[in-house]
Amino acid sequence: MENYKSFQTINGGRIWRMCLPIGLAFLLIVIFFMIMGKAIPASADPGTLYVDWATGSDTGNCQSPIAPCETIGYAIGQAVLGDDIFIAQGTYTENLTINNGIALMGGYEAESWTRDIANYKTILDGNQSGSVLTFQGSSEGMALDGFTVTGGKATSGGMGGGITVDGASP
Question: Most buried one in 2, 3, 96, 169, CB count within 10 A?
Fold first, then answer.
């Protein structure tokens, strides 16, 4: 009987000594994948987004010239640091805030996305409801090029009606 107990202890000890490292390795793998599942995704590489009020739709990511956004505000919400937003000719009645280091580029023709700011006028109209465009925050690389800005209304706090710069460096 004593030999039987001795055999159980020896084999039981081996089993535990083998299971412990395997179990710990499995646990570490599980923890690794749990952490990776909660990791903050890296932002996409800077790219180009497209806006065309005439043919666009505010669904999707605006990254295709054949599937542009309808509004500039929606495209700004899709953009990441360093993106350029190409905006087709037309009048966009929006009040916009840029705070993420993007560039708004107007004056595009929406078929071939060629740019000619003299022939393809892009107008930002604030509809007399505050500043048309506000640059906000400390992010560098913010830009506005190729637009006519109109229809802004200065706020009672003294903020500009056309373009307001609040702590930014456009």
Answer: 96
Task: Please check whether residue 115 is in contact with residue 108, taking contact to mean a CB–CB distance below 8 angstroms.
Answer: yes
How far apart CA 124 and CA 121 sit, in angstroms, is: 10
CA–CA gap between residue 74 and residue 59 (Å, rounded): 9
How far apart are the C-alpha atoms of 163 and 20, rounded to whole Å?
65
Rounded to whole angstroms, the Cα distance separating 146 from 86 reads: 10
Structural tokens at position 28: 């570490």
| Cα separation, 144 vs 162, whole angstroms | 12
The tens digit of pLDDT for each residue in 41-59 reads: 334 456 999 999 999 999 9
For residues 55 and 114, give the distance between their C-alpha atoms in angstroms, rounded to a whole number. 16
Distances 144 to 54, 158, 170 between C-alpha atoms, Å: 21, 22, 8
What six digits make up the tokens of 82? 């360093």
Burial of 162 (0-12, 13-18, 19+ CB in 10 A): middle
Q: Are residues 141 and 81 in contact, defined by beta-carbon separation less than 8 angstroms? A: yes
| Whole-angstrom distance, CA of residue 34 vs CA of residue 162 | 48
